[in-house]
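Whiteboard transcription, Tuesday session. T.W. wrote the structure tokens on the left side:
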């Protein structure tokens, strides 16, 4: 998304292995329902979305297994549960598109990054993805190595 790329310091959490483990076919920006202590912990940049995914529960979309640690300065009565499911806010048409995609074989919804937009609202970039096999991962790694070597050769000669 253009907003996340223009302000990299506003990224709260990123799933770096997503593009290595999955073929990302499409991305969608979604809002996320958070408690106050969760927002403060996200702003501190201590969240992790490495093992999380998005799924449907009761006709709504939820971010499952995302880890947002407890906020240290809050009292013990105002804390949140670190791995609770969090509701994602998307338009009905986008929700229908994502639900249709995950019902196809091998498709899943992977959170790519959690960031704050220009207005200071927390957003999640969701990728509609298909899992890679071991050979696909090796091919990706070979391609990345070749691009790196090619850039190095061009830099040394030119």
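and on the right, the sequence the group agreed on:
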């Amino acid at each position: 998304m253009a907003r996340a790329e223009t302000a990299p310091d506003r990224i709260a959490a990123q799933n770096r292995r997503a593009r290595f483990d999955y073929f990302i076919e499409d991305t969608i920006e979604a809002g996320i329902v958070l408690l106050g202590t969760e927002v403060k912990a996200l702003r501190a940049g201590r969240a992790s979305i490495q093992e999380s995914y998005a799924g449907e529960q009761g006709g709504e979309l939820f971010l499952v297994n995302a880890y947002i640690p407890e906020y240290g300065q809050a009292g013990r009565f105002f804390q949140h549960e670190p791995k609770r499911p969090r509701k994602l806010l998307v338009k009905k048409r986008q929700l229908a598109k994502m639900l249709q995609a995950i019902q196809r074989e091998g498709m899943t919804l992977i959170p790519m990054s959690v960031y704050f937009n220009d207005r200071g609202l927390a957003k999640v970039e969701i990728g509609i993805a298909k899992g890679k096999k071991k050979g696909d991962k090796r091919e990706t790694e070979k391609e990345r190595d070749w691009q790196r070597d090619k850039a190095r050769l061009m830099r040394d000669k030119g």
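Someone added at the bottom: Residues 21 and 132 are 6 Å apart (CA to CA).
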